[in-house]
Task: inverse folding
Protein backbone atom coordinates (compact mmCIF):
# COMPACT_ATOMS: atom_id res chain seq x y z
CA UNK A 1 0.00 0.00 0.00
CA UNK A 2 2.88 2.33 0.93
CA UNK A 3 4.61 1.55 -2.41
CA UNK A 4 1.44 2.45 -4.33
CA UNK A 5 1.20 5.75 -2.46
CA UNK A 6 4.81 6.65 -3.26
CA UNK A 7 4.30 5.76 -6.91
CA UNK A 8 1.29 8.10 -7.15
CA UNK A 9 3.31 10.90 -5.58
CA UNK A 10 6.10 10.44 -8.18
CA UNK A 11 3.58 10.50 -11.02
CA UNK A 12 2.03 13.69 -9.66
CA UNK A 13 5.44 15.35 -9.38
CA UNK A 14 6.22 14.35 -12.97
CA UNK A 15 2.99 15.91 -14.23
CA UNK A 16 3.78 19.16 -12.38
CA UNK A 17 7.31 19.32 -13.90
CA UNK A 18 6.02 18.69 -17.44
CA UNK A 19 3.31 21.31 -17.00
CA UNK A 20 5.91 23.82 -15.81
CA UNK A 21 8.11 23.17 -18.82
CA UNK A 22 5.17 23.65 -21.20
CA UNK A 23 4.28 26.99 -19.60
CA UNK A 24 7.95 28.12 -19.76
CA UNK A 25 8.27 27.21 -23.44
CA UNK A 26 5.01 28.99 -24.28
CA UNK A 27 6.15 32.21 -22.57
CA UNK A 28 9.54 32.06 -24.33
CA UNK A 29 7.82 31.64 -27.71
CA UNK A 30 5.49 34.56 -26.91
CA UNK A 31 8.47 36.75 -26.04
CA UNK A 32 10.20 35.85 -29.32
CA UNK A 33 7.05 36.57 -31.33
CA UNK A 34 6.79 40.07 -29.86
CA UNK A 35 10.48 40.98 -30.43
CA UNK A 36 10.83 43.46 -33.35
CA UNK A 37 12.66 42.12 -36.42
CA UNK A 38 15.65 44.16 -37.62
CA UNK A 39 15.93 44.39 -41.43
CA UNK A 40 19.28 45.33 -42.96
CA UNK A 41 18.73 48.06 -45.57
CA UNK A 42 21.26 48.07 -48.43
CA UNK A 43 23.35 51.23 -48.75
CA UNK A 44 23.17 52.90 -52.17
CA UNK A 45 26.34 54.68 -53.21
CA UNK A 46 25.70 57.79 -55.29
CA UNK A 47 27.41 58.15 -58.67
CA UNK A 48 27.13 60.65 -61.50
CA UNK A 49 24.53 58.44 -63.17
CA UNK A 50 22.18 58.80 -60.18
CA UNK A 51 20.87 62.23 -59.13
CA UNK A 52 22.19 63.15 -55.71
CA UNK A 53 20.90 65.65 -53.18
CA UNK A 54 22.18 69.16 -53.63
CA UNK A 55 24.31 69.02 -50.49
CA UNK A 56 26.06 65.78 -51.50
CA UNK A 57 29.84 66.03 -51.63
CA UNK A 58 31.00 66.36 -55.24
CA UNK A 59 33.60 64.21 -56.96
CA UNK A 60 36.15 66.97 -56.57
CA UNK A 61 35.53 67.15 -52.82
CA UNK A 62 33.53 70.40 -52.81
CA UNK A 63 30.17 70.41 -51.09
CA UNK A 64 28.79 73.57 -52.69
CA UNK A 65 28.57 74.38 -56.39
CA UNK A 66 28.65 77.88 -57.87
CA UNK A 67 25.20 79.21 -58.64
CA UNK A 68 23.92 78.38 -62.12
CA UNK A 69 23.12 81.61 -63.99
CA UNK A 70 22.21 80.36 -67.47
CA UNK A 71 18.88 79.80 -69.18
CA UNK A 72 16.19 77.81 -67.39
CA UNK A 73 17.29 74.14 -67.75
CA UNK A 74 13.65 73.02 -68.16
CA UNK A 75 12.97 75.49 -70.96
CA UNK A 76 12.08 73.87 -74.29
CA UNK A 77 13.10 76.30 -77.02
CA UNK A 78 13.12 74.51 -80.41
CA UNK A 79 14.27 76.02 -83.68
CA UNK A 80 11.57 75.14 -86.27
CA UNK A 81 14.18 74.48 -88.97
CA UNK A 82 16.06 72.02 -86.78
CA UNK A 83 13.08 70.04 -85.49
CA UNK A 84 11.18 69.67 -88.77
CA UNK A 85 13.08 66.46 -89.50
CA UNK A 86 11.54 64.79 -86.44
CA UNK A 87 8.15 63.13 -86.15
CA UNK A 88 5.73 64.55 -83.59
CA UNK A 89 6.32 61.52 -81.39
CA UNK A 90 10.08 61.99 -81.51
CA UNK A 91 9.77 65.70 -80.73
CA UNK A 92 7.63 64.95 -77.69
CA UNK A 93 10.25 62.44 -76.49
CA UNK A 94 13.03 65.02 -76.83
CA UNK A 95 11.00 67.75 -75.15
CA UNK A 96 10.11 65.39 -72.32
CA UNK A 97 13.78 64.49 -71.92
CA UNK A 98 14.68 68.17 -71.60
CA UNK A 99 12.04 68.64 -68.92
CA UNK A 100 13.20 65.59 -66.95
CA UNK A 101 16.92 66.38 -67.12
CA UNK A 102 16.21 70.05 -66.49
CA UNK A 103 14.28 69.22 -63.33
CA UNK A 104 17.03 66.86 -62.17
CA UNK A 105 19.84 69.40 -62.50
CA UNK A 106 17.76 72.11 -60.83
CA UNK A 107 17.24 69.80 -57.86
CA UNK A 108 20.89 68.77 -57.90
CA UNK A 109 23.31 71.06 -59.77
CA UNK A 110 26.13 68.56 -59.13
CA UNK A 111 24.58 65.96 -61.48
CA UNK A 112 27.16 65.93 -64.32
CA UNK A 113 25.44 63.44 -66.63
CA UNK A 114 22.24 65.44 -66.36
CA UNK A 115 23.98 68.56 -67.68
CA UNK A 116 25.69 66.61 -70.46
CA UNK A 117 22.44 64.99 -71.64
CA UNK A 118 20.55 68.25 -71.32
CA UNK A 119 23.06 69.99 -73.57
CA UNK A 120 22.79 67.28 -76.21
CA UNK A 121 18.98 67.42 -76.28
CA UNK A 122 18.94 71.22 -76.48
CA UNK A 123 21.50 71.17 -79.29
CA UNK A 124 19.44 68.60 -81.22
CA UNK A 125 16.44 70.97 -81.30
CA UNK A 126 18.60 73.94 -82.31
CA UNK A 127 18.71 75.60 -78.90
CA UNK A 128 22.43 76.28 -79.07
CA UNK A 129 22.44 78.87 -76.29
CA UNK A 130 20.70 76.41 -73.97
CA UNK A 131 23.25 73.72 -74.86
CA UNK A 132 26.07 76.18 -74.26
CA UNK A 133 24.78 77.09 -70.81
CA UNK A 134 24.43 73.43 -69.80
CA UNK A 135 27.92 72.45 -70.94
CA UNK A 136 29.57 75.58 -69.58
CA UNK A 137 28.17 74.74 -66.15
CA UNK A 138 29.38 71.14 -66.55
CA UNK A 139 32.86 72.60 -67.14
CA UNK A 140 32.58 74.46 -63.84
CA UNK A 141 31.43 71.58 -61.66
CA UNK A 142 33.75 69.00 -63.27
CA UNK A 143 36.81 70.84 -64.65
CA UNK A 144 38.59 67.52 -65.11
CA UNK A 145 36.04 65.96 -67.47
CA UNK A 146 36.64 65.97 -71.24
CA UNK A 147 33.16 65.55 -72.77
CA UNK A 148 31.64 68.95 -72.02
CA UNK A 149 34.82 70.68 -73.21
CA UNK A 150 34.93 68.80 -76.53
CA UNK A 151 31.18 69.41 -77.01
CA UNK A 152 31.72 73.14 -76.51
CA UNK A 153 34.65 73.01 -78.91
CA UNK A 154 32.31 71.77 -81.63
CA UNK A 155 29.52 74.16 -80.59
CA UNK A 156 31.73 77.25 -80.68
CA UNK A 157 33.21 76.14 -83.99
CA UNK A 158 30.15 75.17 -86.01
CA UNK A 159 27.07 76.66 -84.33
CA UNK A 160 28.01 79.67 -82.18
CA UNK A 161 31.19 80.72 -83.99
CA UNK A 162 33.86 81.81 -81.58
CA UNK A 163 37.10 80.20 -82.66
CA UNK A 164 39.07 81.37 -79.64
CA UNK A 165 36.62 79.64 -77.28
CA UNK A 166 36.44 76.61 -79.55
CA UNK A 167 40.22 76.20 -79.50
CA UNK A 168 40.40 76.68 -75.73
CA UNK A 169 37.74 74.04 -75.07
CA UNK A 170 39.29 71.52 -77.47
CA UNK A 171 42.68 72.01 -75.81
CA UNK A 172 41.24 71.49 -72.33
CA UNK A 173 39.47 68.34 -73.51
CA UNK A 174 42.79 67.01 -74.83
CA UNK A 175 44.57 67.94 -71.60
CA UNK A 176 41.94 66.07 -69.58
CA UNK A 177 41.84 63.03 -71.87
CA UNK A 178 44.79 62.76 -74.21
CA UNK A 179 43.79 59.35 -75.59
CA UNK A 180 40.79 60.56 -77.61
CA UNK A 181 42.02 60.93 -81.23
CA UNK A 182 38.79 62.53 -82.45
CA UNK A 183 39.42 65.74 -80.49
CA UNK A 184 42.87 66.23 -82.04
CA UNK A 185 41.30 65.77 -85.47
CA UNK A 186 38.49 68.23 -84.73
CA UNK A 187 40.94 70.88 -83.52
CA UNK A 188 43.08 70.35 -86.61
CA UNK A 189 40.03 70.81 -88.84
CA UNK A 190 39.13 73.98 -86.94
CA UNK A 191 42.58 75.36 -87.67
CA UNK A 192 42.63 74.30 -91.32
CA UNK A 193 39.09 75.15 -92.42
CA UNK A 194 38.05 78.02 -90.18
CA UNK A 195 40.68 79.60 -87.94
CA UNK A 196 42.70 81.31 -90.67
CA UNK A 197 45.14 82.97 -88.29
CA UNK A 198 46.19 79.57 -86.93
CA UNK A 199 45.94 77.45 -90.06
CA UNK A 200 49.60 76.50 -89.74
CA UNK A 201 48.86 74.74 -86.45
CA UNK A 202 46.70 72.13 -88.18
CA UNK A 203 49.51 69.60 -88.53
CA UNK A 204 51.10 70.42 -85.17
CA UNK A 205 48.10 69.24 -83.19
CA UNK A 206 47.89 66.02 -85.20
CA UNK A 207 51.59 65.35 -84.62
CA UNK A 208 50.95 65.86 -80.91
CA UNK A 209 48.12 63.37 -81.17
CA UNK A 210 50.28 60.72 -82.85
CA UNK A 211 52.82 61.01 -80.04
CA UNK A 212 50.13 60.56 -77.40
CA UNK A 213 48.43 57.74 -79.36
CA UNK A 214 51.14 55.99 -81.42
CA UNK A 215 48.96 53.03 -82.35
CA UNK A 216 45.99 55.03 -83.63
CA UNK A 217 45.57 54.90 -87.42
CA UNK A 218 42.95 57.66 -87.67
CA UNK A 219 45.48 60.30 -86.65
CA UNK A 220 48.02 59.01 -89.16
CA UNK A 221 45.39 59.05 -91.92
CA UNK A 222 44.28 62.56 -90.97
CA UNK A 223 47.86 63.83 -91.04
CA UNK A 224 48.58 62.23 -94.43
CA UNK A 225 45.37 63.68 -95.88
CA UNK A 226 46.15 67.12 -94.43
CA UNK A 227 49.59 67.25 -96.03
CA UNK A 228 48.07 66.18 -99.31
CA UNK A 229 45.45 68.97 -99.14
CA UNK A 230 48.28 71.40 -98.48
CA UNK A 231 50.09 69.98 -101.54
CA UNK A 232 53.02 68.92 -99.38
CA UNK A 233 53.28 65.69 -101.31
CA UNK A 234 56.58 64.45 -99.86
CA UNK A 235 55.22 64.64 -96.30
CA UNK A 236 51.91 63.20 -97.45
CA UNK A 237 53.66 60.21 -99.00
CA UNK A 238 55.68 59.72 -95.80
CA UNK A 239 52.56 59.50 -93.66
CA UNK A 240 50.58 57.40 -96.12
CA UNK A 241 53.54 55.02 -96.07
CA UNK A 242 53.41 54.90 -92.26
CA UNK A 243 49.72 54.11 -92.49
CA UNK A 244 50.44 51.29 -94.95
CA UNK A 245 52.83 49.79 -92.39
CA UNK A 246 49.92 49.60 -89.99
CA UNK A 247 47.44 48.43 -92.67
CA UNK A 248 49.59 46.46 -95.14
CA UNK A 249 46.69 44.87 -96.99
CA UNK A 250 44.99 48.12 -97.94
CA UNK A 251 45.26 48.34 -101.74
CA UNK A 252 43.76 51.84 -101.77
CA UNK A 253 46.62 53.19 -99.65
CA UNK A 254 49.16 51.50 -101.93
CA UNK A 255 47.58 53.13 -104.98
CA UNK A 256 47.51 56.45 -103.16
CA UNK A 257 51.24 56.28 -102.44
CA UNK A 258 51.94 55.44 -106.06
CA UNK A 259 49.96 58.46 -107.21
CA UNK A 260 51.86 60.74 -104.85
CA UNK A 261 55.15 59.37 -106.14
CA UNK A 262 54.13 60.39 -109.66
CA UNK A 263 53.32 63.91 -108.41
CA UNK A 264 56.68 64.20 -106.67
CA UNK A 265 58.63 62.82 -109.64
CA UNK A 266 56.48 63.44 -112.73
Result:
Amino acid sequence: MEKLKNRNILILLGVIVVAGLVILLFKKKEALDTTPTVVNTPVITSTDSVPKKQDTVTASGASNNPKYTGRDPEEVHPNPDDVKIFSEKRKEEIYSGITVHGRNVKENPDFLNGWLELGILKKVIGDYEGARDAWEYANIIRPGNSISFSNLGELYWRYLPNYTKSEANFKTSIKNKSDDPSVYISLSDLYFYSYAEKKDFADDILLEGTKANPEDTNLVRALAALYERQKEYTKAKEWWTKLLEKEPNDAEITAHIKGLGEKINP
Observations:
- The CA atoms of residues 119 and 134 lie 5 Å apart.
